[in-house]
Amino acid sequence: MNQASFNHSLLSFLDDSPTPFHAVSTMKCELLAAGYEELVEQQEWVISEGGKYFVTRNDSSVIAFTTPTLDFAHQGFRMIGAHTDSPCLKLKPNAHVERFGYHQLGVEVYGGVLLHTWLDRDLSIAGRVTFKAEDGSLKSRLVDFKDPIALVPNLAIHLSRGVNTDGFKVNPQEEILPILCGAEHTLDLEKLLIEQIQSEYDDISVSSILSFELSLYDVQKAAITGLHGDYISAARLDNLLSCYVGIQALLNTDASRPTLLICTDHEEVGSQSSCGANGPFLEDVLRRLSPVPEQYTQAIQQSMLISADNAHALHPNYATKHDQLHAPLINQGAVIKVNNNQRYATNSETAAVYKDIANELGLPAQTFVVRSDMGCGSTIGPITSGEIGVATLDIGLPTFAMHSIRELAGSVDAFNLYKILVAFAKRDQLISA
């Protein structure tokens, strides 16, 4: 695989994954095509040496792993972690709003959204719908309208004269409701969803919609951009970019040690859920692989996790927002994230392992430390490390406009991180005693 083909497939993955449900579905298809066996949590597992497996939870989180050996106590795991969710606008349960001559949607802000970037964009709707089928059974299916069917128009400057000088604030209850159509049209949201399900699934007849988890998303396609093609411009780079890099590393390594990829939901809202990093999903899987407590602890202490989440690149228009000695540049390498208050889980040993791999491959690495007078974000790294006790490194690809409806990262960085993660999966030696 070369950089061009890697990035081309990345763009397709981003476009095919408008929600965490769709991201996991896309990854599931890749895993099945690569010969991975799907495990079901409600069933007994039979794990064989030389096997390749994956399991999903809530349709929005996935763990995939290889077992070249079953001696987990002495071999441990090489783990790669990322998250499937991104800040967005989600439909409220009673979403249909009719007012002032328009049909609109009531939405709830999910995560730390840059709200103003959602204005004047062509939006569609995707997610999971649960319904009663004509045969009486309850089912869930993913839907994606794909077409631009909604928009949130800006207020004209003539009606907001101070917007460019006094600042711009968006009230999420009153000012971010998308418009679907004029009130001269009839709108039945349940009927609309039934028609969409039946258009995507020929073998299903729907009796009634019972519930849904639907998100708005920008229909503009991901693209390679910049004068020399230096950048990837897309929605949901945080953190589908890391999910893609992680799964490609897993699929393209022949490591002799067990390798595990975990992509969990709900990181943007704290990870506190049954399928989030602060839930039991990873530990449940690891304890089923190593059910003897003594051997489980040995396995964890033989393991290392690389938690991959996007990092803040130095923005040339806002350079003072960075500590100048820890200000990453796009396409100058993945970023080791350090925070002595444990907002990142990196320590000197895990950072050294990563730097050693990068040096052996002749690839660059950068370091990010937030300004001492600013608050620091966090990742699944310290959560996972705190939950199961695994040595962890927090890294990320330098990015502009994080949590915007459209973000910007480097077209070189992702491929270089992929090569480092492949080498990490094959790494036998961590830190010697």
From TrEMBL:
Keywords: Aminopeptidase, Hydrolase, Metal-binding, Metalloprotease, Protease, Zinc
Cellular component annotations (GO), alphabetically ordered: cytoplasm
Pfam families: Peptidase_M18 (PF02127)
Molecular-function GO terms, alphabetical: aminopeptidase activity; metallopeptidase activity; zinc ion binding
InterPro entries reported for this sequence: Peptidase_M18 (IPR001948), Peptidase_M18_dom2 (IPR023358)
Source superkingdom: Bacteria
Reported cofactor(s): Zn(2+)
GO BP, sorted A to Z: proteolysis
EC number: 3.4.11.-
Family: Belongs to the peptidase M18 family.
Protein name: M18 family aminopeptidase
Organism: Marinomonas gallaica
Lineage: Bacteria, Pseudomonadati, Pseudomonadota, Gammaproteobacteria, Oceanospirillales
